Amino acid sequence: RRRLPPLLLAIALLGSALKDTGVVPDTPLRNKRNPLNVYFVKLAWAWTLWLLLPFITLTTYQLARSKFLYGRTRSVLLVLRRLSALAVGTAVWYVCTQLFVYIENLTGECSIAAKPGETPRLYATKHECHQDSGVWNGFDISGHCFLLSYCALMILEEVAVLEGLSIDQNSKLRVVINILFVSLCFLTMIWVFMFLCTALYFHDFSQKLLGVLIGLSGWYGTYRFWYLKPFSPGLPLPNIPLSSKKYSYSR
């Protein structure tokens, strides 16, 4: 978790440098219609949300019952509190992506060949420009760099709960959590790989740098600041007595 933020910044810097030098080979990943981009990156928040939803629910409930010895009602309340982190994440995703669209529309203009005898039309948004087959030139903050960095860091924060979880080796719950854990790890690898592809093939350096900085800010502002406060969704793994470490979840 500590190494990923500087790694993402390094990828953005080095990827941009390689892109500018023109040494990056032409691969199918340069095409925005490649399967990883269409079926995963375009739905990055949905993938992250729907895998974290059952993972947080199961692990938090088990943690509350086995470590804190909470009753069912209190355990459910803790689950709901932790699930509110997904609502916060959704709000961060929505507000930031809408802000990016607003900035691009505000700073852009449409390049389109005017037809003879027609008065050139003024376009207010990128969408209107594209409807008439124009090219919109605006400051396009990298939504991919923002979202992929934010999702990857959020997943790493949430799976940290396994360090304090104790589950019977032969239980069905353990199998389900293992499947979710492996799926989340696989998803994180895809996010980091596609972050690399974005750095190598798309956007200007400033657009990528600003995107990843906003993603890191969203993660830091929640998991490293707000979630430490009492009135918050809280951290995935609260302080657990050292004596319980020997019962930690074995992966």
UniProtKB/TrEMBL annotation:
It is a multi-pass membrane protein. It is found in: Endoplasmic reticulum membrane. InterPro entries: FIT, FITM1/2. Pfam families: FIT. One of its GO terms (molecular function) is coenzyme A diphosphatase activity. GO terms for biological process: lipid droplet organization; lipid storage; phospholipid biosynthetic process. Keywords: Endoplasmic reticulum, Hydrolase, Lipid metabolism, Membrane, Signal, Transmembrane, Transmembrane helix. PANTHER family: ACYL-COENZYME A DIPHOSPHATASE FITM2. This is FITM2 protein. It comes from Campylorhamphus procurvoides.
